[in-house]
């Protein structure tokens, strides 16, 4: 089983990206044998030119005015830039805090696909997602979104799921996937629920896998089978300097753990 890693980022997230890559190099078992593509805006190139990650390929592309939708489209086309059978999607502000093997998320050839039922009485934090993503998925694919697939990392999908998801959107909208996703509406994160999203990458990839590739995924209710949480979401709108000491400490701890193996 070959694995690939795809990360999308921008100039404002480069501090997070550097630590994301350091943590993956330190803690991910498949790091040395995975092809890794990081897609960045052109203004990032001078800053990453001297980074010491030997087999990371940086690809530069001018984003749309709607940078958020450009990122979602980019992740949904990750298979076109990578060769692995299994593709890990990450954001720049993800930090792997302990040793992990992606193979641990695969059982008998099936990848873990975790979900949560829509239940805002149990989890009020789902309210915004419930109001937003089922509507977006319905508009882009014509399908209902019965559960929430954007639950927890790792976002791990078979490469066939990417092409299938794009085909689902193209068939419903009768246009290319690019045209279906393209947006020039300026993205303001403070108005996130009000943004006119045209597609949701993780919800739609999860939905396609569950509906059309059940032989490739095993679905598991996150409430009943919660993974240990080594994948930390740092939220890149958080001032990086407030997190740096903690991240340095976690990297030092992982070095100590690995030395004891």
For this entry, give a set of tags.
261 residues; 4-stranded mixed beta sheet; Spore Coat Polysaccharide Biosynthesis Protein SpsA, Chain A; 8 helices; 19% strand; globular
Walkthrough of the structure:
The chain is globular, with a radius of gyration of 18 Å. By secondary structure, it is α/β, with parallel strands linked by helices. The protein has 8 helices and 11 strands. The mean pLDDT is 92. It has a single domain (3-259), classed as Alpha-Beta Complex (Spore Coat Polysaccharide Biosynthesis Protein SpsA, Chain A). A 5-stranded mixed beta sheet has the order 3-2-1-4-9. Strands 6, 7, 8 and 10 form a 4-stranded mixed beta sheet that branches.
Protein topology:
Blueprint: E1 3-8, H1 14-27, E2 35-40, H2 45-48, E3 56-60, H3 67-76, E4 86-91, E5 94-96, E6 106-107, E7 110-117, H4 126-141, E8 147-148, E9 155-158, H5 159-173, H6 177-181, H7 201-212, E10 217-221, E11 231-233, H8 244-259
Parallel strand pairs: 1-2, 1-4, 2-3, 7-10
Antiparallel strand pairs: 4-9, 5-11, 6-7, 7-8
Helix pairs in contact: 1-8, 5-7
Global structural class: alpha/beta
Q: What is the number of helices?
A: 8
Helix residue percentage: 25-40%
**What is the string of helix and strand elements?**
EHEHEHEEEEHEEHHHEEH
Low-confidence stretches: none
Q: Tell me the CATH topology.
A: Spore Coat Polysaccharide Biosynthesis Protein SpsA, Chain A
What is the C-alpha radius of gyration, as a whole number of Å? 18 Å
Question: Please, how many domains?
Answer: 1
CATH class descriptor name: Alpha Beta
């Amino acid at each position: 089983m070959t694995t690939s890693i795809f990360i999308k980022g921008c100039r404002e997230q480069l501090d997070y990206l550097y630590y994301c890559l350091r943590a993956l190099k330190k803690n991910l078992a498949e790091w040395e044998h995975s092809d890794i593509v990081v897609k960045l805006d052109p203004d990032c190139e001078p800053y990453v030119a001297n980074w010491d990650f030997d087999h990371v390929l940086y690809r530069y592309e001018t984003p749309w005015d709607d940078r958020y939708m450009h990122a979602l489209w980019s992740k949904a086309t990750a298979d076109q830039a990578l060769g692995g059978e299994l593709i890990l999607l990450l954001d720049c502000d993800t930090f792997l805090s302990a040793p992990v093997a992606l193979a641990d998320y695969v059982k008998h050839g099936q990848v873990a696909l975790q979900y949560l039922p829509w239940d805002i009485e149990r989890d009020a934090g789902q309210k915004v997602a419930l109001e937003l993503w089922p509507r977006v998925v319905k508009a882009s694919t014509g399908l209902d979104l019965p559960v929430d697939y954007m639950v927890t990392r790792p976002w791990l999908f078979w490469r066939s799921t990417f092409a299938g998801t794009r085909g689902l959107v193209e068939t419903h909208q009768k246009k290319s996937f690019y045209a279906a996703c393209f947006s020039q509406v300026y993205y303001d994160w403070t108005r996130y629920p009000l943004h006119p999203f045209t597609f949701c990458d993780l919800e739609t990839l999860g939905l396609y896998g569950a509906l059309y590739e059940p032989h490739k995924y095993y679905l598991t209710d996150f409430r009943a089978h919660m993974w240990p949480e080594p994948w930390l979401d740092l939220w890149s709108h958080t001032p990086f300097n407030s997190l740096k000491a903690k991240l340095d400490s976690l990297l030092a701890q992982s070095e100590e753990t690995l030395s004891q193996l």
